[in-house]
Amino acid sequence: MVVYLSSLSKQIESKEDNDEDESNNECKKGRKDCTTLTVWRKSLVFSCNGFTVIDARGDLAYRVDNYIGHPPELTLMNASGKPILTMIRRRKKLRLLDDWLVYEGEVTASSSSKEAIFCVRKHISISNSNVIAQVFETQSDKKNAAYVIEGSFLHRSCQMLDKSRRVVAKIKRKEPTNCGISFGFDVFVLVVKPGFDPGFAMAMVLLLDQMFSYGLFNIRRIAD
């Protein structure tokens, strides 16, 4: 696994410069550069599903282990394995959609005494709205979203916007390398704008995956 990760990092770095040039053209203009992360839908732990997130230098930035099916809790860890954010699914009777509560650090649904910092919900509209998910600052306020996510996660083409309609993060497909190596849907790019927390942006990736990924078979059908 480690050998494969090293090999993947080298492939990513060979293409990363082009990706960063495109992203940073939108970010610089007198400000700091964007944070460009490569998301790999694979756990570093043997025989476990999960996510591995690599930064522009090819170093491990974030990780998720024991990611199987539709778990009630998700934990995003930093490179050293320290939990930084926990997402807990909140099911309600007579509702088709679940809420996800986002907490700082490591918590459990049965023992948490912390207040959630955000509440995330899948958005379904009968109109032609491009919104696929909404992020609220409190559990009670479901009218004024702090952030909305628009686009298509299954196609790895979506963006997160704040209340002022400014893009704070983007998800896009990883382009093939100059050698013709294609990464498919399991490896994609997360671009985070200056001033926005890359860890929180990655947490949104995990929740979008829970909301919209229906298995590798369906993803392959889309690719075809």
Automatic annotation (TrEMBL):
SUPFAM superfamilies to which the protein is assigned, alphabetical: Tubby C-terminal domain-like
Domain of life, source organism: Eukaryota
Residue span of region Disordered: 8-29
Similarity comment: Belongs to the LOR family.
Record's protein name: LURP-one-related
